[in-house]
Amino acid sequence: MIQAPPATSAPVSDAIGRYRWTICSLVFFATTVNYLDRAVISLLKPYLETEFKWTDADYANIEIAFKLAYSLGMLGVGRVIDKLGTKMGYALSTFLWSLAAIGHAFVSSTFGFSVARAFLGVTEAGNFPAAIKTTAEWFPQKERALATGIFNSGSNVGAIIAPLTVPLIAETIGWKWAFVITGALGFVWLILWFVYYEVPARHARLTKAEFDYIHSDVDDMAAASITTEPKVSWFKLLTFRQTWAFVLGKFLTDPIWWFYLFWLPDFLNKQYGLKGTDIAFPVAMVYILSSVGSVGGGWIPLNFIKKGWEPFKARKTSMLLIALCVFPIVFAQYLGQINMWLAVLVIGIAAAAHQAWSANIFTTVSDMFPKRAVASVTGIGGMAGGLGGILLSALVQKRMFVYYESIGQKETAYFIMFLICGGAYLLAWVLMHFLAPRMKQIELDSVPSAR
């Protein structure tokens, strides 16, 4: 039997929330470093194009190498984290991706960058399965979307820090140091992780009041009494419509975020002639808005729940509203003809909506699956998102961008991409609603047809 920690003398008002939000802060820090490391290359693209004579096709191939490795990593890393547990699984992933990030500085060829990006992709895949599992372990259901939104905003903070620091580092001490300095931050996080983190059942300083609050959901109270839970096979998880709802949602919307992350600096360069440190503030503004969306995306369903809505209705309604907020991006270039900052604003709103969507779609996993399957399902969905990104890069960006740039009309390629961005979330919401009309937690030991 798993026993709750003994009660301490701390009053309940002090106990509730103290350690949960410390853990959330650690996951936020890890996600910040994760996105900072992957965003560096997009800001160094002009320097690397000059040194290695890259074309857009070369850059797309390197991007595909990252996404392919990330997708394959997602397929297996969730199982590894479920097996090792969040403490060791998260630490191992961060250690390896930090080595990979630093390794970019020692690459001397285009092929070498593809290898380095692949290693970074497969190791960075561990962040979100570990983060979602940590959130499921430390937060009751009603708070998970908010906690997910907070830690997920780390992806925006990483993307904000990158344009404000990477070009400056490259201009002053060289592009190689940009990879080294950003990659080394992961080792700082590892120290903090081992100092402060433990699962609730083994956390020495966690009060009984907070332990009971964390496990206040009915399903959690039953699960907390189980010492050894059987593992769930991928095959069985794929028999549930709920798994496919998450998979298709990630497949359609993850590629849009990849597009912002890897091509936004290029869009601002080609459309408005921004380069070097000039690009820092517009890119940072997009991700500042994204941070607001990430936290707001967690607040919206929580607010509905506080008004008495059922969690599944609150989540679904929030996701529909968020999907509608992305659509104005189709007018980005038209608004940009009036003023560049209007284009930045509408792209920022769309990026904010993506992060709000992300906070909720990740939370649907812990809504629909017991904790022992959360990392595995998150990994399967993450793999689907990566594959969607690969298809978008290979079939749309690589061919379309190269073609339209060859005829001097790259703005047309970006217009088509903005159309895709505007419709992807609405299509994803419709498919998710059809596959999982009610986000009720499944019984993994039941027969699939009975769900």
Automatic annotation (TrEMBL):
It is found in: Membrane. Pfam families: MFS_1. It is a multi-pass membrane protein. InterPro entries: MFS, MFS_dom, MFS_Na/Anion_cotransporter, MFS_trans_sf. The chain crosses the membrane at residues 21-44, 64-81, 88-107, 177-196, 244-264, 284-305, 317-335, 341-362, 374-395, 415-436. Residues 23-440 form the Major facilitator superfamily (MFS) profile domain. Its main location: membrane. Keywords: Membrane, Transmembrane, Transmembrane helix. PANTHER family: HEXURONATE TRANSPORTER, SOLUTE CARRIER FAMILY 17. This is MFS transporter.
